[in-house]
Amino acid sequence: MDSPFIKKFREFAARKRLRLFLLLLALLLSGYTLYLDLTVRAQFEGKRWSLPARVYARPLELYPGMKLRPEQLTTELAMLDYRDAGEPQDPGSYRRQNDEFTIMTRPFVFWDGAQPALQLRADFDGNHLRSLSDIKNDKSVTLARLDPVLIGGIYPAHNEDRVLVRLNEIPHDLINGLIAVEDRKFYSHHGIDPRGIARALVTTLRGGGVQGGSTLTQQLVKNFFLTPERTLRRKFTEMIMALLLEMHYSKGEILEAYANEIYLGQDGNRAIHGFGLASHFYFDKPLSRLDLPQAALLVALVRGPSYYDPRHHPERALARRNLVLQEMRDQQYVTQAQYAAARSTPLGVVEKAPEGTSLYPAFVELVHRQLRRDYHEEDLRSEGLKIFTTLDPEVQLAAEHALTTRLTQLEKARRLPPHSLEGAIVVTNTQSGEVQALVGGRDTRYEGFNRALDAQRPVGSLIKPAIYLTALERPDSYTLATLLDDSPLVWHVQGANDWEPRNYDKTFHGQVPLRTALANSYNVSTARLGLSLGVQNVIDNVHRLGVDSDLTPYASSLLGADSLSPMEVTQMYETLASGGFHVPLRAIREVLTAEGQPLQHFPLSVQQVVEPAPAYLVTSALQDVVREGTARGLDKYFSEDLHIAGKTGTTNDLRDSWFAGYTGDRLGVVWVGRDDNQPTNMTGASGAMTVWGAMMARLDPEPLVPPEPENIEQVSIDPATGLRADENCPGAVVLPFIRGSAPTETAPCAAPSPARSIKSWFQRLLE
Amino acid sequence: MTTRWLTGILLLMLALLSGCAGLAPAPEQPVSDNSAVLTLVSAARADIADGKSDAAVASLERALRIEPRNPALWQELAKLRLQQGQYQQAEGLAARSNGWAGNNKSLRAENWRIIGQARLKHGDYPGAQAAFDKAAELAN
Predict the structure, then answer these.
(1) Range of the structural domain that residue A744 is part of
(2) Which chain A residue has its CA at the smallest distance from B88's CA?
(3) Which one of A195, A504, B97, B131 has the fewest beta carbons within 10 angstroms of its own beta carbon?
(4) Which residues of B touch A709 (CB under 8 A)?
(5) If you count residue pairs, one on A and one on B, with CB atoms under 8 Å apart, how many are there?
(6) In this complex, is the C-beta atom of A612 within 8 Å of any C-beta atom belonging to chain B?
(7) B54 vs chain A: nearest CA distance in angstroms?
């Protein structure tokens, strides 16, 4: 028998053990909690705050008197997802009645300040915007901008496949739908919803499987750890983690993380996470542009992305979406009318998931490369910079359309295997050097090989204007009328094979005027001209025109044996198109911080590298190429009054087909060829030039009327002799000359005016 | 040799003085008849007065996008670049303005003065002299 003392002692010891046990348990639990806390916070922080740079197209400027077709405005509004509404009230809606538009613009922060939402009325008169006014205060508006089209992002490297969004970019309908369907008490609970858990627990204990009752916070935690394990222990861990998350972060932060994390679909072996990417995956547009039924569909997918997959099970998806809409109406997030309208809307999912999230990946890549010169890669991918670019969606669409449709037509017409041809296009503004469009291949959404930037191909005759410029810069020796020798040529080089250039038509043309040799792209006379000017002098001029790549100092360089990218060719022709100014090609106008503060402006820069007069003569000769030379086929697309300047380029065995041409407002360079470098059976004129024509014809080009430099004079010339002509000479042409360089001698056909013939007699005597 | 240089510099000073005299009271013709362009130009001028030259450049470039062949706009940008000390840009832009200036002699004379001053600032004295000569020739 134990004494009461011992009994007491035992009781005490037992209690102590219990307390010790409890203490240990508490310690263990808090240690575990601490561990969970660290884990979940690391997950949360790791996935947050990495905001990609946003890339925008140029905003469409509106001002009275501007050249703009109503259809252009409609296209722009459609790209911006403006709703065609009967009574435009909300920003982002419009109405068109014949030639009158009513537009509620979205507010937007531009480089030079914010533009609030405006209610604009725009009246058209044919191809011009006649008047622009602010409806609210009934005042005319001198200048307004639409918000720019979002064309892509520069994404974090480790999260390449995500389109991270900020809370304020998520449509209200989507947030409301989520809360209505997934977690009604989201804004009031502390991470878990006890009633929901009780309900779930009962189901579980009855053997109905672990399910339901998860708050958005719990769902977020579940998404952090991607194993589908469904045990009570896991459920318990999730609850603790959810509580911890709520202690550390605000509801907004949690919602934002949820929106970027939630699993919403599968594309082969690529998981679709986050509403931002899902929006592109299902609707091919940015999240901020979704309407109510589209937002409701994304909410519907949360519960089971494969079961409700709108592409494979459209009926289930539709029913679930309508259930979401119904809940939203019942909880008064939307009105009965909104509900009814949304309910009757089709799913609106694009048939095929787009390849990438950028509409114009080739252009965005150019932007990215230009940015890398000034910014750290890390900042571009994480600081949420806003990049305002020079892309003109209308020009881009015209370029893409022309390339894809023409290549298919060319393959059919020339019996080439389908999809064997490839191509690239660069379009710029001739005055500012702004890149308005860039196409890197016929699959325009493909984010891989960018032919416009990286395809190095022999340029063929595209190099010739540099030779003619070198000649025309020596007005004492060469003018447009100078006769060149197009008879057989053999060039001996020690230690190498003789070089015997041939003409494309396999004949020789004797004495030909300089401008005709360029217009018809005669190889022999051009090569002879280049050799007499000096290969190195010509190459120096190619560099002066803006080409940075090295060229080989061989005679074959004169006929374009060297390879350049379409972008480099564009830089070279930009100098000719701008009248002799080196204008660096730019894809970016401005960079803003995520908060909308101006960070950097990429200025227009011009430097005169060629005197105005010789530049003018080269353009005049390139206009002859289109008027009567190898590019005369463009008359199928344009009226002669446009005076387009251009040059065709064809390489050995018809492997590459090039065309570079400019109008009064745009320069376009087109390359067509095959990736495997096999022959295409096309010349520059039959391939690339037709793409150029189809593209520019859609863009209503301005006529090319370069300003005449003061030291240029126009003189009538007899082409056969290259001497002065008058009205008696059949086929005489008026040509520009640098003052003092025109022939003084009169052609035999011209009536000898006494004074002139005496003058020329004296001259002959003196020579 | 030294005396030749000195005379040259004196000559330049004179040319510069005449150039400066010409720059200030340029006869105020409207830069454009397009009200959008005018709005942007006055915004740019206001920004210059406020010392916000980056914003002014952006506004003038925006105006040039609307009227790329307006020599007065190119000149406006050239003057701003000269003021900012970007001499090479000032010279290029003034030359660009010359290209579109046609028979507008006073505009062209002004462009040559800008070119002259820009060349002077980066030490190209003979080039500056030639530009001022051109300006004087056009002003007559």
Answers:
(1) 712-766
(2) A607
(3) A195
(4) 99
(5) 74
(6) yes
(7) 7
C-beta atoms of B34 and A65 within 8 A:
yes
Is pLDDT larger for residue A447 or for residue A200?
A447
Residue A264 and residue A184 share a domain: yes
The reply to whether A530 falls in a domain is no
Tokens of A454: 């990286």
Q: By C-alpha distance, which of A552, A525, A549 is closest to A464?
A: A525
Residue-number span of the structural domain to which B75 is assigned = 33-139
Name the β-bridge partners of A670: A425, A659
> Which residues in chain B touch residue A606, judged by CB atoms under 8 angstroms apart?
89, 92-93, 95-96
Tokens of A139: 């005042």
Distance from CA of A167 to the nearest CA of B (A): 30
Average pLDDT across chain A, whole number:
90
Residue A744: which residues within 8 A CB-CB, separation 6 or more?
A724, A759, A760, A763
Residues in chain B closer than 8 A to A579 (CB atoms)? 99
- Determine the distance from the C-alpha atom of residue A417 to the mean position of all C-alpha atoms in its chain, rounded to a whole number: 29
State pTM to two decimals: 0.84
Q: Which amino acid is at A746?
A: T
C-alpha A9/C-alpha A30 separation (Å) is 31
Total number of domains in chain A: 5
Per-residue CA distances from A491 to A458, A466, A530 (Å) = 21, 20, 12
> Tokens representing A728?
């008696």
The residue of chain A nearest to residue B33, with distances taken between CA atoms, is A65
ipTM: 0.85
Q: Nearest to residue A52, comparing CAs of A290, A393, A377, A282?
A: A377
C-alpha span between A362 and A439 (Å, rounded):
6
In whole angstroms, what is the distance from residue A573 CA to residue A567 CA? 10
Task: Return the amino acid letter for A175.
Answer: I
Q: Alpha-carbon distance A753 to A3, whole Å? A: 153
Residues A182, A72 share a domain: no
A204 pLDDT higher than 70: no
Q: Is the pLDDT of residue A455 over 90?
A: yes
Contact A367, A127 (CB under 8 A): no
Q: What tokens does A163 get?
A: 């389109």
Flag whether A76 is in a domain. Answer: yes
Is A202 found in the same domain as A176? yes
pLDDT at position B18, please? Answer: 46
Looking at the 3D structure of chain B, how many domains does it have? 1
The answer to whether residue A598 neighbours chain B at the CB level (below 8 Å) is yes
Q: Which residue in this structure is represented by tokens 């300047």?
A: A645
Q: What is the Cα–Cα distance from A281 to A276, expressed in whole angstroms?
A: 9
Residue A648 sits at φ, ψ, to 5 deg, of -90, 155
Give the residue on B whose Cα is nearest the Cα of A709.
B99
Q: State how far residue A719 is from chain B, nearest Cα, in angstroms.
A: 29
Could you say which of A111, A598, A606 has the minimum Cβ distance to residue B96?
Answer: A606
Q: Yes or no: say if A56 and A150 are a contact pair by the CB < 8 Å rule.
A: yes
Residues A138 and A201 reside in one and the same domain: no
Helix (H) or strand (E) run with residue B67 in it: none
Res A50: pLDDT: 63
**Using one digit for the tens of pLDDT, what is the confidence trace for A517-528?**
999 999 999 999
Minimal Cβ distance to B68: which of A432, A590, A707: A432
Asked if the Cβ–Cβ distance from B64 to A432 is below 8 Å, we say: yes
Q: Are residues A220 and A74 in the same domain?
A: no
Set of chain A residues whose Cβ sits within 8 Å of the Cβ of B92? 581, 605-608
Residues of chain B with C-beta less than 8 angstroms from the C-beta of A431: 64, 68-69
Question: CB B39 to CB A579 under 8 A?
Answer: no
DSSP A41-53: HHHHHHHSS-BPE
CATH code of the domain in which B121 resides: 1.25.40.10
Do B34 and A604 make contact, defined as CB atoms within 8 angstroms? no
Chain B residues within 8 A of A704 when measuring between CB atoms: none
Catalytic residues of A: 182, 461
Residue A119: which H helix or E strand, with range? Answer: strand A119-125
Closest CA relative to residue A501, chosen from A479, A485, A478: A485
